[in-house]
Design goal:
five-stranded antiparallel beta sheet; alpha+beta; three-stranded antiparallel beta sheet; 12 strands
């Protein structure tokens, strides 16, 4: 036997009782041996978890940086429609007493810090900060309000929004026209190249046939 599967089958120890008792008909070798799994997740539901955001321990105020990896206990706690929501539980490395709990949030496509750890806030509310907002130059919705990490819908009717929307629409129409013009020019150029190539190939073909007749 030269295949890798055959080598693995020959090198695996099979106890005589597994065959003599007839257990091989109903159980696999791992089930017969009482194995709980080949890794720590199958054995104890422990996986490697990497923090998605910077945070602070709520007990010792230690900074836990984004990307820090822990051995966390993974558990299925809820469902969002057909998507499972998992909770990861671990402990603070600094104090060792505070228990961190993080959950997946498929609705918002993010992670939530449930308890033991506080997320470092890196977003700001444009209204509270006293800024004008986020200027949208692509879609043409004008100045948008930014709050809780999201861009809110644009209020309709303001003069600045209407002006920005008309200017953005004009830019978009002009860009589409330029793009269409370039495509037409490229198509015409490719057609001319194809005709030139065909004429050259026809001349070479005619010369080649003339040489064969000699």
């Amino acid at each position: 036997m030269s295949s890798l599967a055959a080598t693995q089958a020959d090198g695996m120890y099979i106890p005589p009782s597994y065959l003599e008792s007839g257990a091989y008909k109903k159980k696999s070798l791992n089930q017969y041996a009482g194995s709980k799994g080949h890794n720590q997740y199958l054995q104890r539901s422990v996986c490697r978890f990497e923090l998605p955001f910077d945070g602070f321990c709520t007990k010792c105020d230690a900074i836990v940086g984004k990307g820090t990896r822990f051995n966390a206990h993974k558990a299925h706690v809820d469902d969002y429609f057909t998507t499972k929501i998992y909770e990861f539980t671990t402990r603070c490395r600094a104090c060792g007493d505070c228990e961190f709990k993080m959950r997946t949030n498929p609705k918002e496509r993010t992670f939530d810090y449930v308890s033991g750890i506080r997320k470092k806030v890196e977003e700001f509310d444009t209204a509270e900060a006293g800024t004008g907002g986020v200027i949208d130059t692509e879609i043409g919705n004008g100045i948008l309000e930014y709050k809780n990490g999201r861009v809110l819908d644009a209020p309709d009717g303001t003069a600045l929004n209407l002006l920005e929307k008309s200017a953005a629409g004009h830019r978009k129409a002009q860009t589409e026209h330029e793009h269409m013009t370039s495509l037409i020019e490229l198509n015409a150029k490719m057609g001319e190249d194809a005709d030139a190539n065909a004429s050259i190939r026809a001349a070479f073909r005619k010369d080649r046939k003339a040489k064969r007749r000699r």
